[in-house]
């Protein structure tokens, strides 16, 4: 019994010590979930302005069956619902409660708990796929696998709209390695943005044509972009949460510093790719 008691005490002490070493949860969270926790609802590198631009060029109608990869808390889903599609399907490995509630309010919407690389949806079962700020965090092989799945489930003539992080085309390989390392260290998840032409090349490699491309400043945490995306009450909510949470405040400062350091290296990129009809 004494040995068991000593072992339990040692385990409890070890857990406390690990907790001390790891620090507050906010110091370990992936950057996008940290921002969501403090109340940021738009987590797109090019902001709402670019989201709307991409969706407009996807030409979504009320006849379209729409799939969204990684809908998160449902900010883009709300815009898609506004286009009154024939059917909306959100694909997420672990759908958020906010998204579940949103889908429950729409009779022509549903959620599928699955990975974007293997949705389980039938071939040629949708007309539009939307994916924002998800491919950047994937290795190149996974990026391609997700694009292949999008190609598989799209009907001929279907559109694949993506909104991701890009790199300046003048960067050397050494520069790109440095940028990716700084980003990944700060946001605590592997960040693997590509130069715009590399995004296009990857889309074309799985069979897509890419008739539309756009870009914007990567200004996710700049005050004017936060105000444009979140509105004055959203900014007040974020500021209140940051004032109450020192660990989150310190993380956001570090993220802003890295984005500032690489503001000439980074940009937001968007594409609408089309599956050929023949």
Automatic annotation (TrEMBL):
Residues 68-162 form the Methyltransferase type domain. Keywords: Methyltransferase, Transferase. This is Methyltransferase domain-containing protein. It comes from Actinotignum urinale. The keyword Methyltransferase applies. One of its GO terms (molecular function) is methyltransferase activity. It comes from the Bacteria. One of its GO terms (biological process) is methylation. Transmembrane segments: none annotated. Residues 1-27 are annotated as: Disordered. Residues 14-27 have a biased composition (Basic and acidic residues). Residues 1-12 have a biased composition (Polar residues).
